[in-house]
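Forum > Structural Biology > Help requests

Title: Can anyone predict the 3D structure of Glycosyltransferase family 2 protein?

Hi all, first post here. I have the sequence for Glycosyltransferase family 2 protein but no way to get a structure on my laptop. I'd be grateful if someone could post the structure tokens.
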Amino acid sequence: MLYLFRQLHRKQQIHKGKFLPIAAYTHQSGHESAWLGYAYYRLCMYQSAAALSYQGRNWKNWLAYIVSLAACGQRKKARRITFKLLKTRLFGRKQKIALADSLAPFAPVLALAILEQVDKKPPALYAALLLRLGRKAEAQAVLTVALHSRWIQQKPELYLLAANATECSPQKQLNYANQFTEAYGLDTIHLKNNGKPFAACNLACHTTGAIDNGPLVTILVTAFRSAARIGYALDSLLQQTYRNIEIIVVDDASDDNTGAIVQTMAVQDMRLRYLKLPANIGTFAAKNMGIRLSRGIFVTCHDSDDWAHPRKIEYQLQPLLQNPALVYTTSQWLRVQDNGEYYARPVHPLMRLNPASPLFRKEIVLTKMGAWDWVRTGADSEFSERLKQVFGAKASVQIKKPLTFGAHRPDSLMTAPDTGYDAHGISETRLAYWEAWRNWQIACFAKGKIPKIPSDGLTLRPFPVPEKIMIDPENLQLCENHILSLVNSQPTSIGTY
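Reply #1:
Sure, ran it for you. Structure tokens for Glycosyltransferase family 2 protein below:
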């Protein structure tokens, strides 16, 4: 009877999205829940989920097992299990759609094969998979019908997929983009150069109603060899309707013209500051350096190759000013290539949570849980999940609007095969780091302890990480000494620390 009661309790936790307690229960008691594999999967602990040998008739657990196998590169095994299950009654239409959607990032061929067995296919998912596999003509046929159906009211993303499916002029790309953003109540976007594609580097937006009063917001922009793109990224921040901002550009020891561009812009706008680190330590450690020089009550980040909608800070700050109980807000983004094609690693949907978007109350966050982990990649996800764990779901609000257009390019951390994602799944390094920080957070939860990252990268780590993403301690010490010399000093010249 006690066992059945516990299983019922775990099922209720699953329905409420409380996956951490289930994993913590296993860590603490040593007893596995029937829902453990699904909990691991929802926590994106794909290695742990794939390592469990699952038997049973719970379709969610099977979905978790199959997708986790694919994420770890075991696609043949995932495919074999999938086609066995599709012959049973366990996977009906709803379950097949869910499985196809979940498999899309890791095994798009298998995902499409599953969806092909479904009647009345969701057009956005169907078109997105066809496009990922290069079948543009078929995707265009699907979208032609969908754009003139009830689906367009539910899924404005169909406009973006239509832009991807056809050879569009820049003006047509712009029209599709504005039809999409109009569904979210955003101001009309324009192209800086009408002859060039709709891309992060070619966007502008004219707004009215500037907000001159309010608490200072610090925006951290880390940069490394960003000369080709940082100009438009900073310009989009300087054009924010919320005016009381300071922008700290932390140059991670670039060897190009990044510094000259930023300093020239800083002369024209005193809200912009430039900090060059003496050694390269990676974007997250650079953020940790920059935040120590910040003066804002609130802090957020922005990537050096992204374009921010002019109301981004306004929309994200407003809930925090209205409700003192809130600790942070987040917003969503779209990633677009320089040719105007939209991209999302998970394939569907295209609009996702922007990992750089948390805008938070600096003092309480730094005091209670610390800032970013001192590693070279993946720390944005850890930081976001730690925010949730420490402050709870009621402490945040997500602004469900595309407030950032990010540049998708092949030479970023996210697309590098040794640190990010590729056609074969997730890199072993990223998987290993995710497992490490998740297990640490789970252990903290089980002990009733708040997970906190130390304020400097030279302190003993709270959990081990793969050597590939560790920071050279000598470089870190150089940067630490440099920041310590600046903390209590004034900028040496206009716009420069």
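The radius of gyration is 23 Å. The chain has 21 helices and 14 strands.
Shout if anything looks off.
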